[in-house]
Amino acid sequence: MPNREKFTSFTVSLAGVETAVCNAISQTAAQLAILGLSEDEMITIQLVLAEALNNIIEHALPYVGKPTGIRIKADYNACGLDLVITDEGAPMRNHALPNPPAPDINVDIAMMPEGGFGWFMIRSLVQDVSYRRKDGLNHLTLRLAVGG
Amino acid sequence: MELVTSTQSDIQIVAVHGPRIDAAVALMFKDGMRNITEGRNGTVLLDLNQVDFIDSSGLGAIVAAMKDLSPDRRLVLAGLRPAVDKVFRLTRMDTVFGVFSTVEAALTDLR
């Protein structure tokens, strides 16, 4: 059973660069260890974080024009684990989250997709995802039904 | 990350020595695969047993390596750990590649 009583919400900050992602995920995973989640749940959390952070670094932050950071806030409640990721990059197009279908893999090898899996993976792995632009910041909330 | 190659029964085995194939090293992996497989023949067996984690960029890099090798050479995978296996199953890429539990199982089947 998850050890909710001992859990307190925490924040992990990272520089907005690809090379900082691995360490930020490890730090987050280490702090979540107290919840006693299953290996598969921990994998899900790490995959969702990796994809969300990569998207921000690749698509939102290049428009800032200066080095900038990302913040991950983790909170565990009766609904599961909420990961709120905040950045000061460009807003989502139309202020809405992408919802692409899985890339088509029933194609010749030469046409096999090498990308476009990120948002499909996030949406497949989370219970809920929401987005809000406020005070010049992007707030992405990922809810994971873990430790149930 | 380091790629280490060996040959058994005309199959080129490439072992990935490193815990992750992610966005930070995807390009390095792609270039490394191209260099290490260049000018050789036969099936390439990618040993992922030491890789704990890949993200969609890492998956894309493995797909790119497969496309680079085709049509003359086939890329098959062995030793997928749980997180790697999860990404392949989620994207159904496990149906595109030949996937074997271990290098030994792959060699037995491919021989």
From TrEMBL, chain A:
Domain Histidine kinase/HSP90-like ATPase: 23-143
GO molecular function, one term: protein serine/threonine kinase activity
Protein keywords: Kinase, Serine/threonine-protein kinase, Transferase
Protein EC: 2.7.11.1
The species this protein was found in: Sulfitobacter undariae
Enzyme class of the recorded protein, top EC level: transferase
Protein name, entry field: Serine/threonine-protein kinase RsbW
UniProtKB/TrEMBL annotation, chain B:
Domain STAS: 1-110
CDD domains, per the entry: STAS_anti-anti-sigma_factors
GO molecular-function term, one example from the UniProt record: anti-sigma factor antagonist activity
UniProt-listed Gene3D superfamilies: STAS domain
Matching NCBIfam families: ant_ant_sig
PANTHER family: ANTI-SIGMA FACTOR ANTAGONIST TM_1081-RELATED (PTHR33495:SF2), ANTI-SIGMA FACTOR ANTAGONIST TM_1081-RELATED-RELATED (PTHR33495)
Family of the protein in this entry: Belongs to the anti-sigma-factor antagonist family.
Protein name: Anti-sigma factor antagonist
Organism of origin: Sulfitobacter undariae
